[in-house]
Amino acid sequence: MTMIDRLRRQANAARAQARLVARLLIAALLSYAVAQALHMPQSYWAAITALVIVQANVGATMGAGIDRIVGTLIGAVVGAVVAMGRYHGVSDLILLAIALIPLSILAAVRPTYRIAPITAVISLLAGGDLQAPWIPALHRVAEISLGTAIGILVSIVVLPSHAREMARAALARALALQIELLHLYLVRFGRAPQAEINTLNDRLRNEIALAEKAQAETQHEPGSSADTLQSQIRAVRRLHSDIVFVGRVTQSWQHDETPPELLRKLSALEAALRPLLSAVMRAASTPKHAPPAHQAAAKALSHLGSGELSLGAVDKCIGQLNQELTSGSGTAMREAALLPMIGQILRRDLAGLIDALSPARAATH
């Protein structure tokens, strides 16, 4: 990764963080102001809720908001019902235990509903001196619903970030790391420190995990389909496995002891794969509403998939590598016998990713 790439990545991260800060501030202040205007008894709960549910993207915010409202409703109902025990002389301690046992189990099974026991405690204890114990529960539901609604609205309107775009950005970063890893395995093998290889693989797995997390959050976003994105993530994961298999063959070799002709064939294969992976990476990072120049990069993948231009170059290099291994001898040659087959699998998975990223395929989902 070049210095410019690192600076661009840091700038993108800082921009995303600044947008999240803006959404958090606006959502919290607006929630508190509206709650105050409506004369809600504990307006700060609206602000707290807005701060809790506003996440990095719209899908995550909507998911957190739904879970918070559901958890609040459950806790409020349980707290109000259990509070009726006061009319029969049951102590608050026993009532609290009756309410918390099932809600604690719920929070353990579904951590996103941790607000349920908290709401029950507040509803139960805050209404101790009231004739109608359901009043604090009703207030809590209203305050948290207000904070949730404003938090979701702010996430949609103010500098919005969408889960789908975050998933595609993570995939693009994963592909960039795959390009580096392939270079280490096919060109720098025997010279690259194992720590560097391990770091690249760890970062790659982390980016794919981030993409999967964002893909799961797209289900909460209106008008979002996760099917195509899911197939893209699977294809990138398969590519990573293919590249790791390449590394298992070449990692144990000593670069200086490898036949020069085999070195040239491996370098040629890497040189054929690199521009194709770079084009796929650019297409993966193209936002849905990108300028025409960026959309052109995505549309170019359709031609790569059908025109066999870059894929044809990969096929040619794999064929030459197979020919070299068939005619050669030595330990490296025998160990490299699997490389053409792994190369064919990598080529197939790369073609599958191109198909998943092509505009024609995306338009059908």
Write the layout of secondary structure elements.
Layout: H1 3-37, H2 44-53, H3 58-83, H4 92-109, H5 115-126, H6 134-157, H7 163-186, H8 194-217, H9 227-250, H10 260-284, H11 292-307, H12 309-327, H13 331-335, H14 339-357, H15 359-363
Explain this structure.
This protein is mainly α and 365 residues long. The two termini are 34 Å apart. Helix 3 packs antiparallel against helix 6. Residues 289-298, 305-309 and 360-365 have low confidence and may be disordered. The longest helix is centred in the first third of the chain and has 35 residues, at 3-37. It contains 15 helices and no strands. It folds into two domains: 13-157, no CATH class; 163-363, Methane Monooxygenase Hydroxylase, Chain G, domain 1 (Up-down Bundle), CATH 1.20.58.
> Class of the largest domain in CATH?
Mainly Alpha
CATH fold annotation of the largest domain: Methane Monooxygenase Hydroxylase, Chain G, domain 1
Shape: elongated
Strand content: under 5%
Q: Could you give the count of β-strands? A: 0
As a whole number of angstroms, the C-alpha radius of gyration is 28 Å
The class by helix and strand makeup works out as: mainly alpha
Major sheet = none
Number of helices: 15
Q: State the share of residues found in helices, binned by percent.
A: over 70%
Number of domains: 2
CATH architecture tag of the largest domain: Up-down Bundle
Alpha carbon gap, first and last residue: 34 Å
Order of helices and strands: HHHHHHHHHHHHHHH
* Whole-number mean pLDDT: 81
Please tag this protein with its features.
elongated; 2 domains; disordered C terminus; about 375 residues; mainly alpha
